[in-house]
Amino acid sequence: MGAWQPLPDDLPPEVRHFVEQLRQLKDRTGLSLVALGARTAYSKSSWQRYLNATQPPPRQAVVALCRVADVGKDEAERFGARWELAVQAWPKPVTVSARPEHEAGEAGGTGGDGEAYEDDPTLPWWDAPPKGPEPPSRRLLVVAGVLVAALMLLMVIGMIALG
Fold first, then answer.
1. 98-130, pLDDT tens digit by residue?
2. Residues 30-49: tens digit of each pLDDT
3. Which of 2, 6, 55, 102 could pair with 49 in a Cys bridge, judged by C-beta atoms 3.0 to 4.6 Å apart?
4. Who contacts 163 (Cβ-Cβ below 8 Å, separation ≥6)?
């Protein structure tokens, strides 16, 4: 893997395997981290965290890397499966909380047993689903109503003037 810094010794095997595979995929692109950040919706520093196993990547980052690396559908699905296994085994960061332990777990924090990392809901603009038509705003309806009333008033005045 060349210039990569060594991964921590205490990483679970699923995480180690996944990060090693991710590094190989990144190397296959031939891109620097800056260039990879420009081709995906994730910054150079984010990629550094993902590829050095200090933070699990969101699923969409893995999808974006697979797309940039021109990975086939089957291999991309294998990366998705490896991602799921790695995220489940990823060491949880230790956080200091002023709340009692039972409340910290209920709030969906990152500390505590049995809690999984949440996938990053941020999607690159090219992956965002198309927006459907939005309902008209209340303000637009009020303006339309005022315009209709004004037109009817003008019609009544015109009929009186002609009559």
1. 444 444 444 444 444 444 444 444 555 555 666
2. 999 999 999 998 999 999 99
3. 55
4. none
In a domain, 90, yes or no: yes
Distance of CA 135 to the CA centre of its chain: 26
If you count them, how many residues does the chain have? Answer: 163
CATH of the domain at 36: 1.10.260
Sign, CA torsion 145/146/147/151: positive
Q: Which domain holds residue 41?
A: 13-106
- Total tally of structural domains belonging to the chain: 1
